[in-house]
């Protein structure tokens, strides 16, 4: 049976949240986040990935995986195809407090 990816998370990159610092590494993948937990910014010494943001990412990954499983189990294929085709893209940002903010 075909699996439809109705919702997808594209999480990556590490950036410093200190105002005015601007340090970032776009090569970091979400699978590498455990290694970045509470690491300090090489530029200013700020925290690059707080426990709150890390926990927030893990929750999102679980929610999206559960949503995809639920949709694939319960919805007919033509609805799933429509959902995949209509997929909207939203970009979010985290700043150390575990909260998601939609990028403008
Ligand atoms: Zn910094």
The percentage helix is 25-40%
Share of residues in strands: 15-25%
Q: Strand order of the main beta sheet, please?
A: 1-2
| Backbone shape | elongated
Rounded mean pLDDT is 90
Q: Could you tell me the number of beta strands? A: 4
List the helices and strands and how they pair.
Blueprint: E1 12-15, E2 24-29, H1 33-36, H2 51-74, H3 77-85, E3 92-94, E4 100-102
Antiparallel strand pairs: 1-2, 3-4
This protein binds zinc ion (ZN).
Zinc ion binds next to loops.
Brief overview:
This protein is an alpha+beta fold and 104 residues long. The chain has helices at residues 33-36, 51-74, 77-85, and strands at residues 12-15, 24-29, 92-94, 100-102.
Descriptive account of the structure:
It contains three helices and four strands, in the order ββαααββ. The model has no long low-confidence stretch (mean pLDDT 90). The protein is 36% helix and 15% strand. The protein has one domain. A hairpin with an 8-residue loop joins strand 1 and strand 2. The strands form two sheets. It has a two-stranded antiparallel sheet with strand order 1-2. A two-stranded antiparallel ribbon has the order 3-4. The radius of gyration is 17 Å and the shape is elongated. With 104 residues, the protein is α+β, with helices and mostly antiparallel strands. The structure holds zinc ion. Zinc ion is lined by residues 16, 18, 21, 23, 41, 43-44, 46.
């Amino acid at each position: 049976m075909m699996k439809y990816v109705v919702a997808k998370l594209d999480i990556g990159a590490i950036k410093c949240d200190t105002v005015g610092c601007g340090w970032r590494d776009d090569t970091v993948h979400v699978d590498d986040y455990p290694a970045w937990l509470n690491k300090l910014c090489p530029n200013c010494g700020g925290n690059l990935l707080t426990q709150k943001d890390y926990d927030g990412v893990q929750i999102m990954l679980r929610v999206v995986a559960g949503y995809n499983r639920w949709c694939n189990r319960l919805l007919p294929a033509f609805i799933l195809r429509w959902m995949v085709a209509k997929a909207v893209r939203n970009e979010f940002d985290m700043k150390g407090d575990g909260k998601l903010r939609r990028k403008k």
